[in-house]
Each structure stands twice: as C-alpha cells, then as structure tokens.
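## retry 2 of 3
previous attempt timed out at serialization; input unchanged, resubmitting
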Amino acid sequence: MSHTAAIVAGLAAATPAMAQSHVVEAPLHQLRIYELYPQTKAAFHDRFRDHAMRVMRRHGFEIVSMWEAGTAEKPEFAYILRWPDAARMKAGWAAFMADEEWARIKRETPAEHRPIVGAIQDRTMRLTDYSPPMK
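## retry succeeded, writing output
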C-alpha cells in the first residue's frame, strides 16, 4: 500500500469515530410528535393525561415535558422522554405496547373519538458533549 493510500485509509477509518466523538451515549432523550385532529384533540388529551401517563410510568417512562404545537387546523402534541440507555428505551416501549390495560383503554375509546392520533414522529436524541446541562 502506498503512503498516500495508507493516509486515506487511516482518515476514512478515523472519520466515523471523530464524527461520533461529540455525542454522549447516555442518557437518551426521545422526541415524539403526534398529529392530532381538531375534532378529537380533547379526547386525546384526556386519554393521555388520565391513562397513558400512568401506564407509561409503570414501564419506566420518564416524561420530561409536553407541549401542544402546530396550528388550530393541524394540531400536534409533542413530548420528550428521558431514558438511561437504548436498551431500556426499547424494553420500555415493548412493555407499554404489550400492556393489557393500555390495550383495553385504546379499545374502549368511544368510536366517535377514533382515530385520535394520526402520524407519529419518533426521534432518539443524544446530547452533544458541549450541550448546556439539562435541568
């Protein structure tokens, strides 16, 4: 291998590590954005506040904060979760989605309130090593 080829190979191998060097692996934050419908927005908030949050806590979810976003015609609900690591996030979601009480609550949502959630955006976020501390 020529000297130039060795330098290029070395840079190529170092680039992924350098690109990741500013990322803190744990804890993770998860951003979830739900598309809501104006006619069922109140039903969504009732179900999330009165049921989903309680069931989520049972499965280790730590809700950092929640917001309403979007417009009156196209409302959205956004929230951030904090997880100790990716494995715990995956296990928490699997347990929540398999939870019998949550399945029953979704089934019992009155027909006039379905569907109450449209598209869901889900992003896993890792802090940079130069981020201000989270409060």
